[in-house]
Amino acid sequence: MENRFESRYAVSPVETKGMDTATLRSNFLISSVFEADQVNLTLSHFDRYIVGGAMPVNEKLSLPNPDDLKAPYFLHRREIGMINVGGDAIISVDGEKYHLAYKEALYIGKESEEVYFESAEPENPAKLYINSAPAHHKYPTKKVTKADADIVELGALETANHRVINKLIVNSVIETCQLQMGMTELKAGSVWNTMPAHTHDRRMEAYFYFEVPEKQSVCHFMGQPQESRHIWMQNEEAVISPNWSIHSGAGTSNYTFIWGMAGENLDYGDMDHCAINDLK
User: Fold this and answer.
1) CATH number for the domain harbouring residue 51
2) DSSP state letters, 68-128
3) Residue 266 confidence class, pLDDT cut points 50, 70, 90
4) Are β-strands 4-8 and 38-44 bridged in parallel, bridged antiparallel, or unpaired?
5) What family does this belong to (predicted)?
């Protein structure tokens, strides 16, 4: 098994204003989330947030412990959440097994020492999209299905943003220290997500786009509301969103995305909204 780990420094909005396309992408875009029989992890210095993916095919994969964490094991002072976007998965947490179907989530609390990932059927491998944040308290491991989720339907087809928000790993569903994760599904004919846009100064965020049809793309908008930038993204890519940045997207087709966030605030509604006509 070969794992990949990358660490990225935080950057300010002043620096971001001067970035060309390649520099913007190298700082914020995570293009290699899934690779067969690997665990790929990217550490952002925004809130020490980790984004990654595990794709077991022919091997049973273990959650690695990168040297940069300087910890006895990965979850020594961390919590982790994952949502399965592939075939059925089997996840072992200190000997206890959890089965995750497509679009089901698992939260694992701090001090869980051994975590393994397997695919129920190697010919249809699991793809576990992973988010992790520092944790100060141990909360129990818990599986969350869409039936358990806090579900909100927003938008309208007339404004091309009719969508269903599935709040999976959030404080209205389970207890966490700071990690929050959910999944937004856009209805056919709708392409805009998180519009009107917003920022939240006390939380950073990451987006993972999937179910993007072949030969289609999503344009992710970021930056300060009056100094926006964009990154064109393909299926199963992720992007880091700093606390000072908007995080919105528009696709050439409808799609689904997973949002994850961490910071000092668990209040989902704590947002500084940006009027559509004020964006620049």
Assistant:
1) 2.60.120.10
2) GG-SSSGGGSEEEEEEE-SS-EEEEETTEEEEE-TT-EEEE-TT---EEEEESSTTS---E
3) confident
4) parallel
5) Belongs to the KduI family.
| Pairing status of strand 29-30 against strand 198-199 | unpaired
Strands ordered across the beta sheet of 218-224: 192-193, 248-251, 218-224, 227-233
The annotation status of 205 as a binding-site residue, yes or no, is yes
Give the domain extent around 27.
4-135+144-278
pLDDT of residue 44: 98
Q: Has 76 been labeled as part of a binding site?
A: no
The answer to whether the beta carbons of residues 192 and 220 sit under 8 Å apart is no
Q: What is the mean pLDDT of residues 114-134?
A: 98
Beta bridge partners of 227: 224
Per the structure, how many domains does the chain have?
Answer: 1
Q: Which amino acid is at 270?
A: D
As given in the structure block, the two tokens for residue 10 are 């935080």
One-letter amino acid identity for 255?
Answer: Y
d(CA 220, CA 200): 17
Q: Checking phi first, is residue 113 left (phi over 0); if not, alpha (psi -120 to 50) or beta?
A: alpha
pTM: 0.96
Is 273 annotated for ligand binding? no
